Amino acid sequence: MFGKKQEGIPVNSRTQGSSSTENTRILAIIAQDYLKDRKSRRRWGLFFKLLLLGYASALLVMYFSDSDQGVSATHTAVVEIDGIIGPGEVSASEINKSIKSAFEARSSRAVILMINSPGGTPVQAAMINEEVNRLKALYPDKPVYAAISDMCASGGFYIAVAADEIYAHPSSIVGSIGVLMNGFGFVETMKKLGIERRLLTAGKNKSMLDPFSPINFSQQNHAKKMLDDVHQQFIAAVKTGRGDRIGDDPDIFSGLFWSGEKAKQLGLVDEFGSAQFIAREIVGEKKMVDYTIRPKFIDAFAKELGASISNTFLKLNMSIQ
């Protein structure tokens, strides 16, 4: 028994077979992972292709919807002036482009300025006023109306007086025909805190109205004269726009403001009514088309989409690494 030669697979052959099986199993796992990765990449590729297709479709839809504002049909053009008037906010540049488009539209029968503003810089307001008057001269058959909602004060009213007629709500706030320049004075506070002001200038009036220096009455008077000049320009625009409709109350140009009901009594407002009322009852074209230039939905969408795609790629790169 012990002398009989043992038959079967040698030990080294069994070891080689086991090793071969293990290698095959590892290769199978690697192949499976590779296929999973390829499937994942294909899915993400399909996702982004569909996303880009949707994005392109949205661009086309927005383009044609923006370019076709119903201008082929007669309508009442509307431009919204909402907020503080000034560069970067309700700027003359953007508003004037909007108003120009509204006037130039062949099918617009009238232009309504929908105003809800507490005022702003006199220069920006004056530029809008001047552009409205320029376009009125170019399009004499196209009337302009101002429709006041909550507030039309200071620079807002500066714009409104360029309209042929002004409409408001009895509870609207109207007026504030004046000019201001404000600031603070910290001289006494600095004395109490023991702070010394060290200011160097070239030009004796360069530090004019510096809040950390005592009042210079000569410079203060100069500023008041400048404000008075701008105020007179404002008053002239109101008188030109309102003509003999404006009352002779001396408080009208004092900077006071009133309710829409009182403003009508003073001749600052013609009638009560909204933009919809004007379009329907005065113009006779109840269809209203908004010509206001504002950030488009597609711009905001593109910005959000770009951020989303960037974040997604970042996550993918992190997972691949």
Question: What do these coordinates show?
Answer:
- With 321 residues, the chain is an alpha/beta fold.
- The protein folds into 2 domains: 67 residues; 221 residues, 2-enoyl-CoA Hydratase, Chain A, domain 1, CATH 3.90.226.10.
- Helix content is 51%, strand content 13%.
- The protein is built from 9 helices and 8 strands.
- Strands 1, 2, 3, 4, 5, 6, 7 and 8 form an 8-stranded mixed β-sheet that branches.
- The relative contact order is 0.12.
Tell me the major beta sheet. Answer: 8 strands, mixed
CATH class type of the largest domain: Alpha Beta
First-residue to last-residue Cα separation? 62 Å
Kindly report the CATH topology of the largest domain: 2-enoyl-CoA Hydratase, Chain A, domain 1
Q: Determine the mean pLDDT.
A: 82
Sequence of secondary-structure elements = HEHEHEHEEHHEHEHEH
In DSSP terms (H or I, runs of 4 or more residues), the helix count works out at: 9
Beta-strand content bin: 5-15%
Care to count the β-strands? 8
Shape: flat
> Which class of secondary structure composition applies to the elements?
alpha/beta
Radius of gyration (Å): 36 Å
What is the H level of CATH, i.e. the homologous superfamily of the largest domain? 2-enoyl-CoA Hydratase, Chain A, domain 1
| Uncertain runs | 1-7, 63-70, 313-321
Number of domains: 2
Keywords, separated by commas or semicolons:
single chain, 321 residues, alpha/beta, 2-enoyl-CoA Hydratase, Chain A, domain 1, 2 domains, 8-stranded mixed sheet, 51% helix, disordered C terminus
